[in-house]
Each structure stands twice: as C-alpha cells, then as structure tokens.
Amino acid sequence: MSNKQFDVVVIGGGPGGYIAAIRAAQLGFNVACIDEWKNAKGGPALGGTCTNVGCIPSKALLQSSEHFEHASKHFADHGIQVEGLGLDLAKMVGRKDAVVKQNNDGITYLFKKNKVTSFHGRGSFVKAGGVGYEIKVAGAAGAEETIEGKHIIVATGSNARALPGAAFDEEFILSNDGALRIPGVPKKLGLIGSGVIGLEMGSVWRRLGAEVTVLEALPTFLGAVDEQIAKEAQKAFVKQGLKIELGVKVGEVKTSKKGVSVAWTNAKGEAQTLEVDKLIVSIGRVPNTIGLNTEAVGLKLDERGAIVVDDECKTSLPNVWAIGDVVRGPMLAHKAEEEGVAVAERIAGQHGHVNFNTIPWVIYTSPEIAWVGQTEQQLKAEGRAYKAGTFPFLANGRARALGDTTGMVKFLADAATDEILGVHIVGPMASELISEAVVAMEFKASAEDIARICHAHPSLSEATKEAALAVDKRTLNF
C-alpha cells in the first residue's frame, strides 16, 4: 500500500505552521499539517505553544488580572464603589482555557475550510525518496503512519530553556506552561529572568496578590529595549510592587515541600537567599528539533540546535524549508506567520517577503511596551546621526480620561533625511499604537510624514503624532 502523498507537508501546527499550511492550500497545493499538541482529553489542540501555553492564554490571564487590579485599586478614582471583592481563580483559569479552546477550534475550522489534511501526532523524517521525503507520524497509543511530501516545511517551534541544575517540574520550578497553571495565588513568587514571559507572568500573579521578586543576570533592565523606555518601564513596575534585582548571579536552586530556595549573589557580590513558594524560570527558549530525526536525511543544524536556513528559509536540503522559532531571527509568533506565508508563496514560484527591520515587538505588561526598528543605543553604536523626539502620555487627553498616563512615545529619525529609524512606546495600548509606526517604516516614511497626518482627537494615537513633531522640536501640547 503506497503512502499518502502531498505537495506540501508542514511539521508543526503553531502560528508559523498552520498559517503556512493555509496559505499553501490557498495557492492550490494538496497540504498536510502534522501537530502533536493534546488538549485535556487527549485530542488535537492546534496552535502550538502560542495558542496553548503562550501568547493566547497569557493575554487572557493578563486581561483578567488587570480587571481585578482595577476593581481593587482604581475603580474608586472613577466613583465606582466595590464591596466584597473576591477572586475565583478556578473560574479565571477556566475562562483562560475556554479562550484557548476557541482558538484551537478556530484553526481546526480553517483547516477544513481550506482543505488542509490534519495529522495528530509527532512528525519526523524517515528518508528522502519517492516524490520527495517520507515523514513518519507517531500518534497516540503507538499508532504510526508514513506520508510523503514533495516539499517539507519544518515549523516545530521552541522550548523553554531550563536553568542548569534546576529542571522544570511544573510544580515548584515553572516554565511558561506551569506559570499559567498555578492552582492558587502564591504568597511569594520568584522570577529568574526579566524577559517578556517572566514580566508578563510576574505581572499576572502580582496583581492577584503575590509578592514577586525578579532576579536578572544582566546589569540593565530589558537590555533589548530602548534604554530610555526601559528605565521608564522599570520605574512603573517597581512602583507597582515588583522587586527587581539586576546584575545577579544565581547559584543553587533547591526544592522542598515548602517551596523553592534560591541562592544568589547581588551586584555588590553579597550572598543572598530567596525563599519562594513558586519559581518561574524565564531565561529564553531553545529551538525544538528533538525527535525530528534530522540525521536520517542530513538536515543541517547549527550549534544551538536550530535548523540552518538562508534568507528565503531554504535549508541545506532541496525542497525542505524551515520557519519560526526553529530557525534564526526573533522568536515571535508574527515573525513565524510572515515566514510561513512567504515560504508557501516561494514554493508556488512567487516572491514571498519578510522584512526583519519592521517586525514589531510587544511586552503585554501594564504599561505595555512596544517597539519597531532600532534603539537609541544601537544608533549610537553604529555612529549614525539621528534626531529623537518624545511625548509623554501625561500630556495626552485620552490617556488622562483613561486614568493611565504612564509612559511616552519616542521617535528616532535620520538626522539628514528624517527617515524613521525606530519608534518606541511604553504606555497604554502600546501594542496597538505600534502598528502605525510599522506601516510608516515599511513605506520609508519620515517623522514629518507622521507629524503631518491628522489623528483623531481625543485619542492615544495623538501621542504618536506629537512625538513625531518633537523630532523637529515643535510639539503642540507639551
């Protein structure tokens, strides 16, 4: 009996994989997508890390916890009196799970709509041959089948990086997965690493009542963020109650029935001990190529275990492509999606395009942090002459009405041409505001272009216009 044959086989059903599969199907290809995520009942749960234990559930909990904090601390400012405020954590987590299921089901529907064949199991290479490559699908209860694809797109994502000597047990030492499933609000919560996941999860549990301490090895807070924006964010987080320790060296981590003990040294070299109920480790992610059986076909990996690709996401093998977290570049869901679309179009003989210089970054804390393009420290390092303009939300009418005036918008533009080189925002709805900057930069706009565009009043986007005006030192409302 011959294997089922497909034009395109996608291994991984996360944001990169499922989008690649749908776009390939739209282009007329016969497409299969293999994904092994399981829901609580053991059935398929398409969407990868992002939908199941990443972007989507974290945003659901962030929203719920923000409502709780508003009710407990800020409603009174609006003349709203709340009595008997309580927390039903099980219901909050249940809502998060329902949001995840809605997204899982949505992808299943899209596969049916676009006639993508879905295989539930773990995909791995068997050999090259036949029409292209044989791929094994290892399903539940040891069930296996082999399919063939002319083109293979590997979109297997990434896994949380564990702290050496402190493996994840998801009970006391938590990855992003365990951080989303804490059964009760911990009295004391520790965070190793002040990256995106750590800060977002730390924010959730702080709002719900945990005492949160962040241990960061780097001497600066959010080193990838524009320094001025990062300092503004740090001030806001400390004011909220996050305890942030920078320049630390983490030593031995011990777990017991009581919780977790972390030995660490502060920036001054003084030995310290942190005792917490739970510890979230957020020190980055590693490409997920375990079990892919790359050696069977000679697929080249780099020293990090990432699949080696060129600018077009082509691997070392003909007709094998790789996208998203499993290759070079930022580990962002939307970057994976764009690469997925581009690869599907390249397979069809089109010219797929991804511009790494205009990929936005977002941290969904409160205040939100979002940016696109270069930071001020990067421009200084490369010796590029630039102009900067900032505008505080404190001077924005809509932000005042919202009662959320923390932060600013910052523009960086070329000193000679006025081309926008970077836009950085810390403040309310930064995740939405950054899109205007992405569009502007994609079209090589100048700061003057944004300054001349009419923005609705009153709106948070007026802060974007005013920051663009500030590049030329002519703000109107500050």
What secondary-structure arrangement, pairings included, does this model have?
Elements: E1 4-11, H1 15-26, E2 31-35, H2 48-53, H3 55-74, H4 89-113, E3 117-120, E4 122-129, E5 132-138, E6 144-154, E7 158-160, E8 173-174, H5 176-179, E9 188-192, H6 196-207, E10 211-215, H7 227-240, E11 243-245, E12 249-255, E13 260-265, E14 271-276, E15 278-281, E16 285-287, E17 320-322, H8 333-347, E18 361-363, E19 368-373, H9 376-381, E20 386-392, H10 397-402, E21 408-414, E22 420-427, H11 430-442, H12 447-452, H13 462-471
Parallel strand pairs: 1-2, 1-6, 2-3, 6-17, 8-15, 9-10, 9-15, 10-11
Antiparallel strand pairs: 4-5, 5-6, 7-16, 12-13, 13-14, 18-19, 19-22, 20-21, 21-22
Helix pairs in contact: 1-8, 3-4, 3-6
Walkthrough of the structure:
The chain folds into 3 domains: 4-159 and 286-354, FAD/NAD(P)-binding domain (3-Layer(bba) Sandwich), CATH 3.50.50; 173-283, FAD/NAD(P)-binding domain (3-Layer(bba) Sandwich), CATH 3.50.50; 358-471, FAD/NAD-linked reductase, C-terminal dimerisation domain (Enolase-like, domain 1, 2-Layer Sandwich), CATH 3.30.390.30. It has helices at 15-26, 48-53, 55-74, 89-113, 176-179, 196-207, 227-240, 333-347, 376-381, 397-402, 430-442, 447-452, 462-471; strands at residues 4-11, 31-35, 117-120, 122-129, 132-138, 144-154, 158-160, 173-174, 188-192, 211-215, 243-245, 249-255, 260-265, 271-276, 278-281, 285-287, 320-322, 361-363, 368-373, 386-392, 408-414, 420-427. The mean pLDDT is 97. The protein is an alpha/beta fold and 478 residues long. It has 13 helices and 22 strands. β18 (361-363) and β19 (368-373) form a beta hairpin. It is found in: Cytoplasm.
